[in-house]
Amino acid sequence: MTERNSIVKRVHAALEHERRINLHRYPLRIAVENDAVVVEGEVESIAAKKLALEIAAAVPEIRGVVDRIRIAVAERKGDSAIRVSLGEFLLREPELRRCAIRVRTKGRIETLREVGADRSGDIEAEVGDGVITLDGSVTSLSHKRLAGVLAWWTPGCRDVVNSLDVVPPEEDNDAEVVDALRLVLEADPFVHSDQITATCRNYVVTLGGLVRADEERRRAELDAWALFAVDNVVNRIEVRGPA
């Protein structure tokens, strides 16, 4: 067995052991190119995507991971429809009200909102084959993370590339993650944020609290997974229906 085949088999075996990755329903293609593991295919959630990339990166012999994973969406939508929905999300979010919002279509830039000199960001979005790319700059890591989650929420989105710069630069840490998650949970209309607690250690988020439905518990977990730089989520939220 060649070294490449050995790496592929080990990555595949590790993926099989992760219960949150369903290779039978969503098979992933694993390859080795130029000392990097290439992971390609569709998965059911952003959690499965991040876990698959983390597992691939854990192989000691490789120098990097090439991410070609997309999310399998319930309903495929055209890029123009995704672009419209994304623009609406960004424009409606109060925390981004002082951000200029622009979308790029085939090299042409359309300004959805312009702001004055006291702006807190300049966000430019582009959509290609269901993949949303965010460029530009914002003034805080929380705004970067919030914009990224709004992109993940957009119907039809298959992946998000969050290339927003933070100007001036901020040092990232666990407290920043918790601050951003609080903003996201408050913005999520399907979650009662006041009933959910969150902590973070080494970019692993732990959720607690009490909600009334499994769907709300699941939604809160997905919101945490969607945050930029979050590596794992431990969901300890309890579900207790009305008495």
Polypeptide structure, described:
With 243 residues, this protein is of the alpha/beta class. It has three domains: 3-71, Histidine-containing Protein, Chain: A; 79-166, no CATH class; 174-239, Histidine-containing Protein, Chain: A, CATH 3.30.1340. Helices cover 33% and strands 32% of the residues. Strands 4, 5, 6, 7, 8 and 9 form a six-stranded mixed beta sheet that branches. Helix 4 links the parallel strand 7 and strand 8. The longest helix is centred in the first third of the chain and has 15 residues, at 3-17. It is globular, with a radius of gyration of 19 Å.
Distance between the termini: 60 Å
Largest pleated sheet: 6 strands, mixed
- Summed up, the helix count is 6
How many DSSP-defined strands?
13
Key structural traits:
243 residues, alpha/beta, Histidine-containing Protein, Chain: A, six-stranded mixed β-sheet, 6 helices, 33% helix
Summarize the structure.
By secondary structure, the protein is an alpha/beta fold. It is built from six helices and 13 strands. It has three domains: 3-71, Histidine-containing Protein, Chain: A; 79-166, no CATH class; 174-239, 2-Layer Sandwich (Histidine-containing Protein, Chain: A).
Topology:
Elements: H1 3-17, E1 28-33, E2 36-43, H2 46-57, E3 64-71, H3 79-92, E4 99-105, E5 108-113, E6 121-128, E7 131-138, H4 141-153, E8 159-162, E9 165-166, H5 174-187, E10 196-201, E11 204-211, H6 214-225, E12 232-235, E13 238-239
Parallel strand pairs: 2-3, 4-6, 7-8, 7-9, 11-12, 11-13
Antiparallel strand pairs: 1-2, 4-5, 6-7, 10-11
